């Protein structure tokens, strides 16, 4: 097989800023021809002027980061002349994509009902804040708000700290991917059946879906998600950030064999088979409950005599205090990574795509 998988697919993108352009960029990277429709009355995509790294009055590094491999057409699709040009493009395209406010696609005629007479196979994908129907369809939606609405900010950051958002616009980016997946599915069906459709994706829907197993735990068992110290996992122990002598390291025991290897690295192999620490279930009981640190010995564990066992565990690394944190802090990050050469993704190959500015 040669070429990229979406070669031969043409998408008209009435998009702006981050979420939409990120989704269509993924499609363009897969080979789709993405024609970005930019409104001359607004000087095109607003991200062209996002600071701090502007290249010209109509270009910025932010814009380039979200619009790789695309074409651009300056066109106002609202007046009759612009509408005619747009319809000619729709006739020879597979999809029309937008990330406008939920009530706008119908107003400017880019839904399936508005375009099926022009091309019955056209797929019309809309990525909006709250979907295209319902009481909030006409409201704008932004990543930061969606992180709050979905409750994600209440489980991000350290216990006792204010609500915190992700370091990047994760809902915008995920929304872009979800809408790209929906569009691709619609195109596959349209090519098989000859009929297009609307694809309706909301940022809030996307944000809530990211709760995934935490949400299912809550609905089925009443679990209440909360912030965990040191970015710990909700149920798998140990899996969190630990300080080292010169920085931080992430310890992730997502399989029982990783716990066994960790015990070997820290010089306490006998703990791998100790019934008090052998499985995920018992380790979760030994460590403190959610909201507290999971790198020390809980009062219940100390009362059962487990403190002595942990002290033996940590003395192997010349730790002065009975806590795993102290043990990991005795070496530098580079030294810990060398403890198991070839067994860490931290040294994996990095791939950087370099592209010339096409704009």
Question: Describe it for me?
Answer:
By secondary structure, this protein is of the alpha/beta class. It has 2 domains: 10-209, Rossmann fold; 229-347, formyl-coa transferase, domain 3. It contains 15 helices and 10 strands. The strands form 3 sheets. The chain has a 6-stranded parallel sheet. It has a two-stranded antiparallel sheet with strand order 3-4. A hairpin with a 2-residue loop joins strand 3 and strand 4. Helix 1 crosses helix 7 (170-193) and helix 7 (170-193) packs across helix 8. It is elongated. The protein starts with 9 loop residues before the first strand and ends in a 21-residue tail after the last helix. 31% of the residues are buried. The model is unreliable at 296-307, 309-323 and 342-348 (pLDDT under 50).
């Amino acid at each position: 097989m040669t070429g990229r998988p979406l070669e031969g697919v043409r998408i008209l993108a009435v998009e702006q800023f981050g979420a939409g352009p990120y989704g269509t960029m993924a499609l363009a990277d897969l080979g789709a021809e993405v024609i970005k429709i930019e409104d001359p009355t607004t000087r095109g995509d607003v991200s062209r002027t996002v600071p701090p790294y502007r290249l010209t009055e109509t270009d910025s590094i932010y814009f380039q980061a979200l619009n790789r491999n695309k074409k651009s057409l300056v066109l106002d699709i609202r007046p009759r002349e612009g509408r005619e040009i747009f319809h000619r493009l729709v006739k020879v395209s597979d999809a029309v994509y937008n990330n406008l406010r939920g009530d706008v696609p119908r107003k400017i005629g880019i839904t399936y009902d508005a375009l099926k007479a022009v091309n019955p196979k056209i797929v019309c994908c809309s990525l909006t804040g709250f979907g295209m129907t319902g009481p909030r369809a006409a409201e704008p939606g932004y990543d930061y708000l969606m992180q709050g609405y979905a409750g994600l900010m209440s489980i991000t950051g350290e216990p006792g700290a204010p609500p915190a958002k992700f370091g990047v616009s994760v809902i915008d980016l995920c929304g872009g991917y979800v809408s790209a997946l929906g569009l691709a599915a619609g195109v596959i069906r349209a090519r098989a059946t000859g009929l297009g459709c609307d694809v309706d994706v909301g940022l809030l829907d996307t944000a809530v879906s990211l709760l995934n197993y935490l949400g299912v735990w809550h609905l089925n068992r009443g679990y209440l998600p909360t912030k965990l110290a040191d970015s710990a996992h909700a149920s798998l122990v140990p899996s969190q950030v630990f300080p080292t002598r010169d920085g931080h390291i992430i310890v992730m025991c997502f399989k029982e064999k990783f716990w066994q290897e960790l015990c070997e690295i820290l010089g306490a192999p006998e703990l791998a088979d100790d019934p008090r620490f052998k499985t995920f279930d018992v380790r979760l009981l030994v460590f403190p409950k959610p909201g507290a640190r999971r790198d020390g010995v809980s009062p219940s564990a100390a009362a059962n005599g487990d403190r002595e066992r942990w002290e033996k565990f940590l003395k192997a690394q010349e730790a002065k205090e009975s806590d795993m944190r102290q043990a990991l802090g005795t070496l530098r990050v580079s030294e810990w990574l060398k403890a198991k050469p070839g067994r860490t993704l931290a040294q994996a190959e990095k791939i950087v795509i370099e592209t010339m500015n096409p704009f």
